[in-house]
Each structure stands twice: as structure tokens, then as C-alpha cells.
Amino acid sequence: MRIAARYNGPPGSGNGGYSAGLLATQLGLAPAEVTLRRPPPLDVDLRLDGALFHGDELIAEARPAPAERPEVVPPVPLDEAAEATKRYAGLTNHPFPTCYVCGTDRADGLGLRPGPVPGDRTATPWLVPAGVTDVTMWAVLDCPGGWSVIGDGRPYVLGRLAVWIDAVARPGDTCLVMGRFLGGEGRKAQALSTVYDPAGTAIAVARATWIAI
Question: Could you tell me which of 37, 23, 29 has the C-alpha nearest to residue 65?
Fold first, then answer.
């Protein structure tokens, strides 16, 4: 397995959601839960041997998702989500501005700008690109949850992501993506995320653990 350089999160490593989704699909797991043990390296051959390795170093582990599917993050109207993008903290203080999913310095990324809305939530519209796959859905479910956690500018990285996909978004649609902070202790924080199609149907949900660095 190889993670192309354009799918980065922090500089020099793969976006957590994209990398986790690529591993889950390579192993044929759906729904799935992936735990990242090390930053996934880019543009190198990674070994699949029940888990993901770079040489002898364990990068990530995957397993079937827990039986208990998380609740959806309650949606907001799409125009309210568009307004929330103006308050996106990453516009002024982004720890990883070249992130494929939410980076402000990327013209070729997914362009998500999850801004705060009431209820410890974030919201952003998502114009679905061509070529969207299950792996894209994993990536989209990553950062909106993370930005519901990041409140004081302290950077967090994805530690674990469990994803349930009912449908892949259709290219050309404008979907709604929501994140929600559930709480945390020490360096760990928990978050949910949900993708809604234009009809307001939740088509994918996720639960994540984020780690402060």
C-alpha cells in the first residue's frame, strides 16, 4: 500500500482519515475502525500483514467497527453552514495549512472549512468532487470532528477513527458535513462527524479519538 504525497495531513505524513480509509478498504473491512500508531509516511511502500507496517514499524491497525453505531451529529441548514465557514479557526490559526481535507494553502484539496455552530459542533458545506470513493468519505469525516475539539489553538492529530458508510456522495452535489465534540480527558478527546446528502439524509457517520501533540 502507498499513500500518495498529495493526501497529506501534517507535513510529511498522510491525512489521518484518508490513510485510515485506504487501509480499511485494502483489507476489505466495512464498517471499520482504524487506530493510527505512527504518522503514516508518504510515497513509500507500506506492508500489509494483518496491519500496516513501514519496514518493521507498526503504522496502523484495523478491525471491524464496534457493533454500536454512533448517533448522527444534528444538522444545521446549509446556509448556516456556509456562514459558519467564515468563522473557521483555520483561516487564521491552522496548525497544518497544507492538509488535503481542510488546509487553507491547498487549491487541490477537499476544501472543507468547518466553522463553529452551537452545541459544540462544526459545520461546513462540501462540494463533492469527481472520483469520490469510500476513502474520500473517510477523509471527509476526519477534520470536521477534529475542529470541534481544537478550541485554544493546540494542535491535535487523529488517533482512532471508526466509520460507517451507507452511501458515497455523488460528484457535483453539495453535501453538509458536521462535527461534534463529545468531551475529553488528558491528551485525548472524542468527537463525532456526519455527512448529509442534499436531501438531508445522513449517508456516513464516524466516531474519532484525537490526541493533543
Answer: 29
SS3 137: helix
Place of cell 453539495: 174
Longest dimension (CA), the chain: 48
What's the one-letter identity of residue 52?
L
A 10 A CB-CB count for 144 gives 33
Q: What angle do CA 64, 70, 73 make, to 5 degrees?
A: 140
Number of H helices, E strands in the chain: 4, 10
Return the pLDDT at 153: 64
* CB of 88 closer than 8 Å to CB of 147: yes
160-205 confidence digits (pLDDT tens)? 999 999 999 999 999 999 999 999 988 999 999 999 999 999 999 9
Backbone angles phi, psi at 175, to 5 degrees: -95, 165
Cell of residue 40, nine digits: 503514516
Chain centroid to Cα 199, Å, comes to: 22
| Residue 23 Cα distances to 59, 125, 211, angstroms | 10, 26, 20
Q: Which of 140, 176, 185 is nearest to 161 (CA)?
A: 140
Q: HEC states along 71-133?
A: CCCCCCCHHHHHHHHHHCHHHCCCCCCCCCCCCCCCCCCCCCCCEEECCCEEEEEEECCCCCC
